[in-house]
Amino acid sequence: MPTPTSNTHESDQSSPDGLSRRSFLRSSAVLASGLAALAASLAPLRHLNDFPSLDQFLQKYYKELTPEEMAKVLKRIEDEVERQYGLRPHVRDLKPMNGVEFVYALNLTRCIGCRKCVHACVAENNQSRNPEIQYIRVVRLPHGSLDLEKAEHNYSPEQVPEKGYFYMPVQCQQCKNPPCVKVCPVHATWQEADGITVIDYNWCIGCRYCAAACPYWARHFNFTNPSIPKERLNLDMAYLGNRPRRQGVMEKCHFCVQRTRVGRYPACVEVCPVGARKFGNILDPESEVSSILRTKRVFVQLKEELGTSPRFFYYFDV
Amino acid sequence: MKQAVRNYLVFLWRSGRLAFVGDWRYYTWMGVLSVFCLLGLNAYAKQFAQGLVVTGMSDEVSWGVYIANFTFLVGVAAAAVMMVIPVYIYNNEELHDLVIFGELLAVAAILMCLAFVTVDLGRPDRFWHLIPGIGQFNFPASMLSWDVLVLNGYLLLNVHICGYLLYCRYRGQAPAKWFYIPFVFIAIVWAISIHTVTAFLYVGLGGRPFWNSAIVGPRFLASAFTAGPALIILAMQVVRRVTASAPAGDTSRLRGEGGESQTPKSRAAALGDLDLLAGHLAELATIPQEVRKNILTGAMVLEARAGDVFLRQGQTDKESFFVLKGRVVVKREEGGRFRITRSLGPGEQFGEISALAGTPRTGTAIAEEPSQVLSLPATSLHKLMASPRMNKIIRSRMSERLLITDRALMTLRSIVQVSMLINVFLLVNEVFKEFYSGNLHVASAKYLFLGLHGYHALVPWIWTAIGFNLVAMVLLVLPVSRSLKWLNLTCVLCIVGIWIEKGMGLVIPGFIPTPLGEMVEYSPSLNETLVCFGIWAFGLLCYTVFLRMAVPILQGRLSKANEGQPEFGVSGAGGRSAL
């Protein structure tokens, strides 16, 4: 059968010997320069910040870890922190307490916008200092309006509070119906029995869909490897809480699980100089938050119309 | 089974080899694309090492140009169905050959989509958390998990359909309908679903009022069915151009080596000639002797020398032809160039479309070497096709023809036309709802169209997009876009306009202002831009390779029949001569 060639070209491989050597040399040269170019283009990988170890790469999902495996993981994390910072932390896997559902109440009449909570939070939760990640954003609003479009984020007067304004701190609202949990494609974030939405920093793939879904701008991403000065490291750590995060994962306020699950107040509550922040167990009728929600005539769930049902309530002294 | 796999691998190997062979234009094109791919890879390596900090994204605007491109390209992939629907549902023969090109474009677009989502991940090393069964797959709650399923499913569907049709063409056998038609129909529904799911990714977020609008899904489809076919119109003309064998006017080539072309000598056909044909065409052997005699009425055998012409483009005669011996090429004049559309060996047919439909000849058939050809009048062809098996083989071969006619491009033009009108209409709806009601949620739209609180980075972009779309819409409605020059300009306007409107114009303003009312703008960094160029170059590289593999097979120049023979090296691109 004839070779289907057109008039415009001849068939390949006409003189086998000479041609094959020449074409072999030529393709080797092309291949070699191609590989060299490939290697050159991959050169920046030499400065890799955070190459996962095999154990890290293969680590199972939080909810699938047996207690023994969890113990190993916690030890490994302690080793990692020690290697990086030269200090040995204590990392625990704290579970929710029975019969506890945490809620937060914040008195907008009292808040003076001093941002002490913002910085106490950063110190407590081992957030990256450079670039700095903050879980709490305090906004300044003109008297009479809760319209966030009018919020001033970068207010910096010599003295707070200022006349004609009030201040509203916003952090993770620990929604009962959290959009961030719904959208996460890999179950890396979920709501625990005590109402806290947590993140498994070793499972997050960094797609940032939760950040797009959150109506409260509560989710913050590690755009690069976090840096914390060694002397600022808080060594009391929890797996789902304040242990140092890595590059490329999401983090957010977790009501200080390393404190609240052992019966202490969150750092922001403790530091507040005017007592605007109240925290407690809503299932306990005697708790301060229960009595606030029972007695205050008006309280606000931010963006209530979205149906997220926050466990974070803003109220006023009337 | 083992044999089938082996055959398929031989087919892939032989067609894949073609990707490395071409003329200097081909090498230049592939070389430039490779350089951009490597630049992109280099930029991505930087991002991989240092984190997403090297992009322009921030906590405030946490998705950028990666996701914008992803969204646009899902639309391009989905638009492949706009070629499939007319062919399989309305039996539009003109678009038939474009289906494979459209689906190959879909495959390339999906590969780009997957690349764009991968580079957007903060922890690409944890991709396995997304694999159903191995990782933790949040299905059906997360729309992103839907997207993973539908995109990969669509990729597999299209790879299967294209691969199977090309493989059958390569083997010279009719494709088994049950093995691809069901998938074609699944792919049609699937294509709509990939873009709807991608729209739902945004629509489902109550905290982002700019996206949380029911009209986003329909808008996505309308803009996809504008930009996708527009891209295919341009791509098809490039294919048509580079597969043209010789510049027009070079008539000596058309006539063969022997100067003036000749009409072949003919004699009346006999039963023996049909036996000869049956040797190459098994289906004919089933036709009983009486019918064969009947067919012979008016049938002739043409004895042709190389260069003799059997039929000419534009003529309206009604014979159909079967090659008995030798080889015949069909060339087609388009846009001032001749292009080899097919190369036919014994047992294969030509000229049957005009014989059956009475339309003018779409190409000129020339004997490439001394050949014997059986010529049948239309009445005989009808008699032959009364046999279901003959009917099937003739029809299926007709439908595998590589034919990019201007009429096919005009069919695509009307798709673009209607889609653009709907697209602009939906945009007007959206703008009206946002601005007339004027509630608090208008902030993002205000930022996009007019600027807000002194921030207006996107304003020039969106008005460029709207301007392009409107001009394109007017051009599409006017008859002027029936000329290819204007149509091409229109297509470019559509593609650029929609890329801006739907990519940057949809993704970015959703984040601005933030849910807490803060204004932070976004513009892609150089590194991020290089990654994007790299992925686009990678996609074009893939598409070029796919076409490189598919075109010679569709032309019949690479087939099972010439397995084991010296590789012919190149397709009609008039490629590299080895010596």
- What is the CATH T-level topology of the domain at 102-315 in chain A? Alpha-Beta Plaits
Beta strand % of chain A: 5-15%
CATH topology grouping of the largest domain in chain B = Formate dehydrogenase/DMSO reductase fold
Average of pLDDT of chain A = 91
Number of helices of chain B: 19
Q: What's the story with the biggest beta sheet of chain A?
A: 4 strands, mixed
Let me know the number of strands of chain B. 10
Global geometry of chain B: elongated
Radius of gyration of chain B: 27 Å
Unreliably modeled segments of chain B: 245-259, 568-579
Under CATH at level 1, the class of the largest domain in chain B stands as Mainly Alpha
Shape of chain A: elongated
Radius of gyration of chain A: 28 Å
**Major β-sheet strand ordering of chain A:** 10-2-12-11
**Uncertain segments of chain A of ≥5 residues (pLDDT<50)?**
1-16
Largest interface: A-B, 80 and 87 residues
Describe the model.
The complex is a heterodimer of chains A (318) and B (579). Chain A is of the alpha+beta class. In chain A, the strands form 5 sheets. Chain A has a 4-stranded mixed sheet with strand order 10-2-12-11. A two-stranded parallel sheet of chain A has the order 1-8. Chain A has a two-stranded antiparallel ribbon with strand order 3-4. Chain A has a domain at 102-315: Alpha-Beta Plaits. Chain A has 9 helices and 12 strands. Chain A is elongated and about 95 Å long. Chain B is an alpha+beta fold and 579 residues long. Chain B has 2 domains: 2-243 and 405-562, Formate dehydrogenase/DMSO reductase fold; 252-398, Sandwich (Jelly Rolls), CATH 2.60.120.10. Chain B contains 19 helices and 10 strands. Chain B has helices at 2-17, 24-50, 65-78, 81-88, 96-120, 143-171, 181-203, 216-242, 251-255, 271-280, 289-295, 352-357, 378-385, 388-398, 406-437, 443-449, 459-477, 484-507, 526-554, and strands at residues 244-247, 265-268, 300-304, 309-311, 320-325, 328-334, 337-344, 349-350, 364-367, 371-376. Chain B has a 5-stranded antiparallel sheet with strand order 1-7-6-9-4. In chain B, strands 2-3-10-5-8 form a 5-stranded antiparallel sheet. In chain B, a hairpin with a 2-residue loop joins β6 (328-334) and β7. The longest helix of chain B has 32 residues, at 406-437. Chain B is elongated and about 90 Å long. In chain B, 50% of the residues are buried. At the A-B interface, α1, α5, α6 and β7 of A face α2 and α6 of B.
